Structures are given as C-alpha cells and as structure tokens.
C-alpha cells in the first residue's frame, strides 16, 4: 500500500508538470500517463521490498523485479492505449489498464518469492484493489470544479487508485496464509514470512527466502509434506557450524513443527505460527493395564529366573551400544522369558516412549506401524513418526522389517534400515521416539 500511494503521488507530480494546459480533467487522458503510473508502481514496490529486506542480494533482486514489473505493465498499458481515441479513454479503458497493472503487480511479487500461490493470491487481491481504484477515479471527477480542485482531485485519485492496488496485492496473501514465521529479534522484529512454498530456505545465501547472517548459505529448511499435511524443520549446515535450535534445543534430526515453536538460526529468532496446529495436543497414551489386587485365595505366581547374559558379554554389548540402546538392553517388560538370540519372535514390546510396557503381537499376517489409526500397530502419541512408517512381513519363516516412507527413518540396533531387514529375537527397533523390542 505504501508503494502504491507513493507511486500515485509521483505520477501526479510528473503528470502535472507534463500536462497540457488544455487538459483539465481528473482522469488521465493519455496512455503514457497510465503507463507512467505502471512504471512507478513497480519501481516503488521494489523500493519498499528492498527496504524491508536485510539481505543485500535480496535488495537487488527486489529492485530488479520491481523495475521489470513496472516496465512490463507500462508496455502493456501503452499497447492498451493504442485502442483509445486521442480525445480520451473510452468507457472501461481505465479499468482495463488498472486491471493489467494489478495482475502484473501481484504476479511479480509472488514470483519474486518463487511462490505460485502467493502470485495467484497477490494478483486476485490487486485486481480487487484495481476495481476499487476505478471507483476512486470516477468519484474524484465529482470534485472537478476548478483548476485547483481538479489538481487536488487528481492527486487524491491517482494515490488512492495505486494505493488500493498495492493494498490488495499485499493483503490477499496475508489473509490467505496458513503458516508463517514471525521475527522476534532485530534487524526486523515483527516481520512475517509466509510459508507458502513446499520448501522455504533460511540462511545467508541469496537463494534463501529468509535471510540469517553469519550462518551457512542454506542453514535450515522448512518443508511442507502434502501427504502428512504438516511442516517439518531440517538442519542443513555441516558438522561444526552453528546449530539450529528448536525451542532452545539443538536439532539432531528432522522435527515436526507446531504452532508456537521457537526457531533460532544464527542470531535470528522466529516463532512458527500455524493456527491449524494450535490445538494439536499429543494424544494420551493408552492406559497401562491395571495390576491385579492381591487375593488371599489366589496362588502366588511362581518366580522364574530372569534371563541374563554372561557378564563379560553384557559389558561388551553395552560398550558397543549408545546410551539409549544400553537402557533398552537392560530393560525387560512383559511376562515370560525372552526367546534366545536369533529365534523367531511373536510380539513387539515397547521399552521406551509413550507406550512403554505395551505388547503388540506379530504373527504371519503383514503388520504396518505408524501414527494413523488404520495401522495394525497405531502409535498416535508419537508425533515424530509418519502416518504409515514401517511394515513387518512374514517371509521364509522370518519376520522382515521394511521402511515404507518414514520421514525420519527406521533403525534396528542403531543401524538405519535401507533394505528389508530380517528380525531376530532381542532386536530393538527405533521409530521416532518409540523403542520396540522384538521378542
């Protein structure tokens, strides 16, 4: 809107200087005047875009795209003016010129951000603004009662028409945005960055949609996964460079984003805003089975000797495992003894995560594991796994584990599953924040 009003005022100044003494009307009577308005709208939009950008490369790009916009719109309006008689615009010609300016304004702003949705939304908003600008131009003719009133009316009309185009092109994408980042720290606190693209890059490079100084060229990305209908944050910088912080914790893997999450890249701090996830709370884990109350008439269970490895083997295994896997090896939940190493199991027992203590049978039928309720093993409380994360099939008298599109992978005994992997009793499967032991 600021760019539109400024360009309207500049157009008024130039047209007043170059206006013919016999031309006293409010609405411009020459196609070159409308073309001038187009050029100035584009250039002013580029200036304003550059002023709010803190990336030198983005400033140059904004000025260039604004100048290109103005040139294209000016040429278009000039061609449009070839159909206009010398005596003035025929009915509807002003509207047509404004609509052309508006469409190019909105489209160029979206394409400068490499976002087709922003281009479409900006064009629609600018067209609505152009229609309102035509009303402003026509309304201004009512005040054409003398040389000074006509001059002032032209200033009001041109500024209002151009301002409404700028307002519409900026307001429509803002009203339609579904997710965005808001800057919480200088250089531009309060600035909002719509996340309208499939991938939004954050870093110091000119290719990044969001600039952060003193970090890698592309330091982090926010990806939109249509199948999940959610956005996730990925750290892209090499080892040894500054960490990407999510809620003040360094990132070690991809993380799903939820409304209100705080993201820090270098010195820039943003808050992630997505109203669709505002009420998203972690589903409660199913209640653990209640322990039966002791009864005098009920016989005491027969104590069984716990399964254990020789101490020297246990130490060797623990030395090779990560801390999380050490805890998994030592934990033992559920009834019965675990089968011997290498045997065929018949269930998965959760030893870490929201479902700790729960047992899930695996027999001869295929079993899928994921967050969606349609899976045979549904884990909705673990938001770090995909809707359909992994599959277990019974083939050649073995259970085979496969990754079927997991967003952050499947691990068996700390090894990433890259191909169908046979399971042996005692194997520990990691999916998101859930550890399952195959028994």
TrEMBL record:
Q: What sequence ranges are listed for the domain FHA?
A: 367-417
Organism from which the protein derives? Capsulimonas corticalis
Task: Report the transmembrane regions from the record.
Answer: 29-50, 62-83, 89-112, 124-143, 155-175
Region (Disordered) residue ranges read: 280-302
Query: Is-annotated flag, keyword Lipid metabolism?
Result: no
State the name under which the record lists this protein. Answer: FHA domain-containing protein
Q: Which InterPro entries match?
A: Cell_Proc_Reg/RNA_Proc (IPR050923), FHA_dom (IPR000253), SMAD_FHA_dom_sf (IPR008984)
Q: Which UniProt keywords apply?
A: Membrane, Transmembrane, Transmembrane helix
